[in-house]
Amino acid sequence: xxxxxxxxxxxxxxxxxxxxxxxxxxxxxxxxxxxxxxxxxxxxxxxxxxxxxxxxxxxxxxxxxxxxxxxxxxxxxxxxxxxxxxxxxxxxxxxxxxxxxxxxxxxxxxxxxxxxxxxxxxxxxxxxxxxxxxxxxxxxxxxxxxxxxxxxxxxxxxxxxxxxxxxxxxxxxxxxxxxxxxxxxxxxxxxxxxxxxxxxxxxxxxxxxxxxxxxxxxxxxxxxxxxxxxxxxxxxxxx
Length: 239
Description:
It is a single chain. By secondary structure, this protein is an alpha+beta fold. The protein has two domains: 2-73, Glutaredoxin, CATH 3.40.30; 83-229, Glutathione S-transferase Yfyf (Class Pi), Chain A, domain 2, CATH 1.20.1050.10. Helices cover 56% and strands 8% of the residues. Strands 2-1-3-4 form a four-stranded mixed sheet, with helices on one face. Helix 1 (18-30) links the parallel strand 1 (2-6) and strand 2.
């Protein structure tokens, strides 16, 4: 049995991390039996989630998980796509993972109201005398990471514009298709759903959410994916 180590559902999303949601979606698309387990962060081989344990073989990182599933179980998540479509799908994935992700992190962690609604809940298990210190430490660490990555150096308006352009690019590729590259989900849909569902999360009041809501096809896409793959998942209340 495959075990996927996760943070668990949060904010009305399948998982607090879009990378965990991506891995979970890949397993659903593969049709493989698996179980999700929480609490594995301390044992994570790379210090991050997700990772999976496939009968003793441990694989960390959502992209490496995809490659493991493809190689081990002879799955082609992009079956039927042309080489050009495969390239486009990969480019969309990496835009979201390596650029858009950091804009979402900024919106949730560096803006007090959003932090209070969301990430602050991660610290409930920390004893209250040191909880505030732990929050400040982690938020400061994330600000440093964003600065090093580069997006944290931009003004809020410029950062919102960059994230909005990412959202528009996804909407442009999706067009009027039911899934990113056509009539059935491909591997990149696992990533696109994870990030667009997060962008549209009603719990957070952000320019990113406003940008995503301006594209009806994206809103419909996320609703379609939720209904198909997470029919029992309840949405978060609006901010």
